[in-house]
User: Which sequence fits this backbone?
């Protein structure tokens, strides 16, 4: 194997490794890092024929097929983006000899898809599929706190707003957002509102493991753990972190939203404030 072919082979392997592993940090990050990696990879392979570059699309193609098969359309942008960028690469290579325009378009594409397009698409897809839940009864299911007791009744009719941060043990971004979820609680100490994390168990999870995981990332004691993995289906949660607002046994909000306020972004505080007026 020649040195050039070894570099090419390494680029393709690296791309696929990052494509898989970056999902741990969240879809927006995955979309951003893989678009950036495409720019670097296509730059390294600039003198290679298109047939070589197409091999970078093997993993995105597999991911795209799985998305379409599972109808998991809220992550569709991750599988589609490499093909969009590949089309840009072919077009720009034919129209321009200089790579300046190529790099500028790449930077613009990253900005649009990573900081705007992906978040908006994600919120839209996850919230629209759960919009029918708003106003319906909150489903009854078995859950306990860290000590193994059901210390709170989420189905009660006491005018309290319950804010639930749903998570699973394999969701890296969930753990990263726990401090944000904890931070906003200090803004509502005088309101009739309670905040809880709610674990949705996976088959491989044990109760002691889940308690240990949440204790390392979340300092408050208001943690709940669902006891049946089928409860995920009952709540129609397609991805985590996922937030649910409940009052008087009725669902006020059921979907995806940013925790802390950001510029031009709908956030969890906006949802809570609507029901405190």
Assistant:
């Amino acid at each position: 194997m020649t040195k050039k072919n070894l570099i090419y082979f390494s680029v393709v392997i690296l791309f696929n490794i990052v494509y898989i592993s970056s999902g741990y940090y969240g879809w927006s990050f995955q979309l951003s890092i893989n678009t950036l990696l495409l720019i670097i990879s296509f730059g390294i392979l600039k003198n290679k024929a298109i047939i070589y570059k197409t091999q970078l699309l093997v993993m995105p193609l597999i991911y795209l097929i799985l998305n379409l098969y599972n109808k998991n359309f809220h992550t569709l942008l991750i599988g589609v983006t490499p093909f969009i960028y590949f089309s840009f690469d072919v077009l720009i290579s034919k129209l321009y000899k200089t790579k300046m325009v190529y790099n500028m378009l790449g930077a613009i594409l990253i900005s649009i898809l990573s900081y705007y397009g992906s978040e908006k698409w994600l919120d839209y897809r996850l919230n629209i599929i759960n919009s029918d839940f708003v106003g319906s009864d909150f489903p009854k299911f078995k859950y306990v706190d860290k000590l193994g007791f059901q210390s709170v009744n989420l189905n009660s009719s006491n005018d309290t707003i319950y804010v639930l941060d749903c998570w699973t043990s394999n969701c890296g971004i969930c753990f990263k957002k726990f401090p944000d979820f904890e931070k906003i609680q200090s803004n509502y100490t005088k309101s009739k509102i309670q905040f809880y994390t709610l674990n949705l168990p996976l088959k491989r999870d044990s109760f002691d493991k889940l308690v240990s995981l949440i204790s390392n990332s979340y300092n408050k004691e208001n943690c709940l753990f669902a006891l049946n993995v089928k409860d995920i289906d009952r709540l129609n949660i397609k991805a985590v972190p996922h937030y649910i607002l409940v009052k008087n046994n009725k669902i006020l909000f059921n979907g995806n939203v940013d925790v802390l306020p950001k510029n031009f972004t709908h956030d969890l505080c906006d949802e809570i404030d609507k029901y405190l007026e």
Observations:
- The radius of gyration is 22 Å.
- The chain has a mean pLDDT of 81.
- The first strand starts at residue 143 and ends at 144.
